[in-house]
């Protein structure tokens, strides 16, 4: 299947946030598939499961997430390091990606060595679990250098791009490619 949008055709991933509170609807995977595959096949979509809220229905959520994986979607634990039951969810849910919260790259009371150690530990965990590791919230060249140092798989944040309208997406990608070479 081809992407309908030239900007989407150039991508390897398109991500959509999904609340953990929605994971009690057994029909959700089929509904999401029907909607999203009008633009791209399931293997081009990553569903980012926000972990800031607790679900009391671990079994139902596992069932829904497994159905997503069987349909070909990738699943990301979003905002790792915040919220509830982080390690239990990593142990049980069929994630393919770990998105490390921006707090892991912002240097504060512990200084750069503390920040580096925390980020390295989170990246090591993702790698040990054979997950793609993405660091969120990278806003400065210093943070970008730190993320490169610990060798995560991808970066996300205002340094890369502020939110853009769909028709400006290709321009934002081209701008990042130009700036990335100057930052690195």
Please give the alpha-carbon distance between the first and last residues.
35 Å
Q: What is the beta-strand fraction?
A: 15-25%
Number of helices, where a helix is a run of at least 4 consecutive DSSP H or I residues = 7
The secondary-structure class comes to alpha/beta
Quantity of strands, as a count? 6
User: Would you list the SSEs in sequence order as H and E?
Assistant: HEHEHEHEHEHEH
**Portion of residues in helices?**
40-55%
- Low-confidence parts: 1-10
Largest beta sheet: strand ordering: 1-2-3-4-5-6
> How many strands, what sense, and barrel or not for the largest sheet?
6 strands, parallel
Shape designation: globular
Radius of gyration: 17 Å
Average of pLDDT: 85
Descriptive account of the structure:
Helix 2 packs parallel to helix 3. This protein starts with 5 loop residues before the first helix and ends with a helix. The relative contact order is 0.11. The protein is of the alpha/beta class and 184 residues long. The protein has helices at 6-9, 28-36, 58-71, 86-92, 111-128, 141-150, 169-183, and strands at 14-19, 45-50, 74-80, 97-100, 132-135, 154-155. Strand 2, helix 3 and strand 3 form a beta-alpha-beta unit. Residues 1-10 have low confidence and may be disordered. Strands 1-2-3-4-5-6 form a six-stranded parallel beta sheet. The protein has seven helices and six strands, in the order αβαβαβαβαβαβα.
Can I get a quick summary?
The chain has 184 residues and is an alpha/beta fold. The chain has helices at residues 6-9, 28-36, 58-71, 86-92, 111-128, 141-150, 169-183, and strands at 14-19, 45-50, 74-80, 97-100, 132-135, 154-155.
């Amino acid at each position: 299947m081809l992407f309908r949008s030239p900007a989407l055709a150039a991508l390897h991933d398109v991500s959509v946030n999904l609340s953990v509170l929605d994971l009690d609807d057994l029909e959700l995977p089929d509904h999401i598939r029907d909607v999203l595959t009008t633009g791209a096949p399931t293997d081009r979509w990553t569903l980012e499961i926000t972990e800031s809220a607790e679900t009391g229905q671990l079994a139902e959520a596992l069932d829904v997430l497994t159905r997503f994986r069987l349909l070909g979607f990738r699943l990301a634990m979003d905002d790792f390091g915040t919220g509830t039951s982080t390690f239990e969810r990593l142990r049980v849910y069929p994630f393919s990606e770990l998105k490390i919260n921006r707090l892991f790259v912002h240097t504060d009371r512990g200084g750069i060595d503390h920040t580096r150690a925390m980020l390295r530990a989170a990246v090591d965990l993702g790698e040990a679990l054979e997950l793609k590791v993405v660091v969120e919230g990278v806003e400065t060249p210093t943070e970008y250098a730190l993320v490169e140092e610990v060798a995560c798989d991808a970066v996300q944040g205002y340094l890369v791009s502020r939110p853009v309208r769909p028709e400006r997406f290709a321009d934002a990608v081209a701008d990042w490619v130009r700036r990335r070479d100057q930052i690195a």
